[in-house]
Amino acid sequence: MVAVVDVARVAGVSTATVSRVLNGHPSVREETRQRVEAAMQSLNYRVTVAARSLRTSRTRMVLALVPDFANPYYAEIVRGLGASAREHDYELLLCDTGLSEARERTVAQMLNRHFYDGVVCMDPYTTQQMVSEEVRSLPWVACSEFVPDEQIPHVSIDHRLAAKDAVLYLLAKGHRRIALINSDERYLYAQQRRDGYRDALREAGLQERADYIQIVGGIDHPLGELAARRLLALDQPPTAVFAVADTLAIGAIKATMASGRQVPDDLAVVGFDDVPLASIFEPALTTIAQPRRELGEHAMQLLLRRIAGEMPSSVTLAHTLVVRRSA
Fold first, then answer.
1. If pLDDT is split at 50, 70 and 90, which confidence band does 15 have?
2. Using DSSP, how many helices (H) and how many strands (E) does the chain show?
3. Which of 4, 48, 177, 287 has the maximum number of C-beta atoms within 10 A of its C-beta?
4. DSSP single-letter state for residue 284
5. Cα–Cα dist 249/238, whole Å
6. What is the DSSP string of 311-327?
7. What torsion, rounded to 10 degrees, do the Cα atoms 196, 197, 199, 205 define?
8. Domains and CATH numbers, the chain
């Protein structure tokens, strides 16, 4: 097995110099660094995570807490996290928490014991509230979901404003009977998007109708179908629906067309997130696009700054209304 001492002998330097090269120390001259790297390549030397951890107290591993692997919304965020992590010589680990407070507490304890260097959390803010006291001083950041007025840095969009923009678009198209299909209000995004819906109605001088609000407790498309069937069965059904997730919106479209009605002629539908299926479903879905890959990239950048001992400011990214055939 090739050791540091072998690299030092071939490169004609001390083992301390090899160690400084491995750790990216700025004091090493470029010519020396190149000689050490050439020696490592010729000897096929590989740095193990365990060895590096012993030298630096860093594992070069970071963990992402994902509440639901089956949700397509998180896939592009994870790609952004992974790409940014690799650029900085970190490995990304994934944990499906299942919205478990106990799981988050275990993760916090493992972070405190240096099993990995930091955590990006995407769990609901209600779950994060339970553990935030434990992790406030640790390398921990929130992505998409976050605890309002908390010191832990986060990256997100303005969900309330984005939802308001979606409903204002429907109002501008002439709709006055606009329904809301909401998911699980344990999530901050669900609360903020509901508030944005209300803001738009209030700005238009419209009263909120209780029978137009469907809270379905999840985002699976059958829940969107169920909500739409209930809305279409009303004596005065809505002419438009804002769904807080694309999967719910697609379910609503399926139920509408199954009833013999047309989208958007009989019911206009707007979603949220712009998951890949939104552009290929028929009719293609009008939706709010989140910069999901950028959310992941920014979250990793915040985490790396926390690992370096900084306390960076939170980041709010811009959203985009993507107009397609459904509304």
1. confident
2. 13, 12
3. 287
4. P
5. 14
6. -PPPEEE--EEE--TT-
7. 170
8. 4-47 (1.10.260.40), 61-155+292-317 (3.40.50.2300), 159-289 (3.40.50.2300)
